[in-house]
Amino acid sequence: MRQLLPLEIPESAESSSGQYFYEPDVINVLDDLVPRYIETQIYQGLLEAVASEHSARMVAMQNATDNAKDMIEDLKLTMNKVRQETITKELLEVIGGVAALN
After folding, report:
1. What is the pLDDT of residues 27-47, one digit of tens each?
2. Which helix (H) or strand (E) holds 36?
3. Per the domain annotation, does 51 fall within a domain?
4. In a domain, 61, yes or no
5. Is residue 11 part of a domain?
6. What's phi and psi for 7, nearest 5 deg?
7. Cα distance between the two ends of the chain
C-alpha cells in the first residue's frame, strides 16, 4: 500500500536553505502537478498488477510444462516395461512349445 495524499515532504527537502520562486505561483503549479502525480501513481500500480499477472501465468505454464515432461517420462518407462514383459512372455511360450515337442 502506498499513501498518495497527503503528500509527505522528505526531511532533506525541509532542511535545504535555498528559496525558490515559482512562476506561475505555487498554488497553480501544485494544482497542475498533484493530479498528475496521483494519476501516475495509480497508473504505476495498474502496470505492476498487470506485470505480476503475466509473471504468475508464465510460472504456471512453466510448471505445467515441467509436469507434462515428467509424466511423459513416466509413461515411456511404463510402456517399455510392459513391452519387455510381453516379449519375455512370448519367448517363454515359444520355448515351452519347443520343449513340449521334444
Report:
1. 888 889 989 999 999 999 999
2. helix 26-101
3. yes
4. yes
5. no
6. -70, 140
7. 88
